[in-house]
Amino acid sequence: MFEKLEPHHLELLDHYGLLDHQTNCRICFFNSGDTVFAQGTIYKYIMIVVSGKAKVCTQAPNGKDLVLTYYLSNGLIGNVELMSNTNHAIASVIALSSFECIMVPFENNQDSMFSNLTFITQLAKDLSENLISSAHSYSSNALYSGEERLCSYIIHGAYKNYFFDNLTDVAATIGVSYRHLFRLLNRLCDEGILARDHKGFKIIDRKQLMRHSSEAEK
């Protein structure tokens, strides 16, 4: 779905130094569960996140499950591909809520955005933040229990205190079986930390969820 640019969209373009691209930009809307960007897709544009939350994930070796790399609620989509001169998406982006972004087409590596200092500076900041998020995800899998990893996953993946995600992907990401994931979720519900919702889970006690997570001070 596409709409015209509004003032707050122009502010975001200005933040990235891309006002000169506004005539070719489009506003895109996605629902929870929609694929924003599919791994392997050929692309000639980047996206600036306006609102909502999404997860960036890669296909697991079994070819079926998607394994979380990091969460996204602001910044750029397609920045890694842009800087590595790759013409296809190296990861998938899945919306976890209503998700809005600005699509910014570019011609090739001779496009003016590549010589735009404001854009390159913001791009570097986004890449460093993504690297930090990915490093935290990997360390959590190595050092913490399944329950701690799950609680951290929910904290970072929740949007407005609701957690909606594909549970098969959740199990693959935190490194537990699908059956064990259900046991962990049931335990959190029994303890009054979560409550089942028709679309997923609602966070009832965020403090306790934090205490059960890898984010808690030990």
From TrEMBL:
Record domain Cyclic nucleotide-binding: where: 30-104
Recorded GO MF terms: DNA binding
Any one of the GO BP annotations: regulation of DNA-templated transcription
Domain HTH crp-type: 144-207
InterPro entries in the cross-refs: cNMP-bd_dom, cNMP-bd_dom_sf, HTH_CRP, RmlC-like_jellyroll, WH_DNA-bd_sf
Keyword Transcription in record: yes
TM regions (residue ranges): none
Key words of the record: DNA-binding, Transcription, Transcription regulation
Keyword Transcription regulation: yes
Signal peptide: none
SUPFAM superfamilies xref list: cAMP-binding domain-like, Winged helix' DNA-binding domain
The name this protein goes by in its record: Cyclic nucleotide-binding domain-containing protein
Organism expressing this protein natively: Enterococcus hermanniensis
